[in-house]
Specification:
286 residues, alpha+beta, Thrombin, subunit H, 2 domains, 6-stranded antiparallel beta barrel, 6-stranded antiparallel barrel, 4 helices, 39% strand, globular
Amino acid sequence: MSRRRQSGHRLALIGLLATALAAGCAHYAPTPAARTASFQPFAANTVGPEGLRDYVLQRVAILFWGADQLTLTPEQPSPTGPQVGFKFSPQGPFGYGNATAIDARGYFLTAAHCVGRSPVYVIWREGKPGAVRTVLLPARVVFRGDPAGKGTDLAVLRVGQALDRAFSWADRYAAGDPVVSAGQNADRSGIPNLAAVLLGGSLIGSTPHPEANPPRTTLFHTTPIHPGDSGGPLVAPDGRLLAINVAYAEGYEFLPPFHIVHATAHRPDLSWLRQVIDQDWSRRPN
C-alpha cells in the first residue's frame, strides 16, 4: 500500500471516529492539568513584542446566544486571568462558545453549532494594557453553515464597531507542524474565563472539501480541546490563524496500537470568506 493511500485511510478513519464520537465539542475530556501542561512547550514563544499567549487570547471573545436579557458582572481576578460573569434571562435554549476575531471592521468567525437562536452577543475585551475594559456587543449572523452531512461547521458574525485587533491567516501548514488552540476555563455555574487557556499539540493532517458549502479544508490535530472550546482558534506558533475548532474525538483508548486522539478544525476557503465579508461590508448603512 502506498504511503499516500495509507495516509488517506488514516484520515478516513479519523473522520469516521469524529462522526461517531464527537457531537459539537463532546468527547472524552482531558484533565485540566493535561490541558494546561500541553502549552508549556510554547510558553516562551513571542509574536513581535507580545507573548504568544497574550497575542492569541486578545483576539478571542466569548460568544453567547439565546438570552433575551444579558448583562455582565464585574470582572473577578483568578489565577489564569480576569474572569467575567454574566446574568441572563433565557426564554428557550441558550449556549456559549468562542468567537475568533478575523477582520478589524468587526467580523468574527465561529462554529455554526455555537450559534443557536437570536439574540447573539460577543463578550470582548478591548483597549491597551492598563486600560482594558470588557464590553458586551450584539452580533449579527452574516453567514451560518450547516454542520450536518457535507456542510461546514462555520459561521461569520459582525458586531457594530471596529475591533482594535484581529488575526491574520496562515497560508502554509503541513502534518507534524506544532499548533496551538485557545479554549475556556468554565465551571458549571456558566462563568467562562475569557478564553484564558492555551493548549498545545501538533497537526495530524488535512483533507480538502471543495464540495462542501462553503468550501473548506478539515484539519486534524492533537490539542486537548474540550466542551466550550468550539469556535476558538487553531493557530501556528507565529500567531497566524489556521482554522476554527469544531470537535474532538478519542477512540480505542485501551488498544494502544489503534489509539487515536485528535481534534477537528474547519478552515474556510479564504477567497470565499473575503467575498462574504466584503459584500456584507458594502451593504452597511452610510
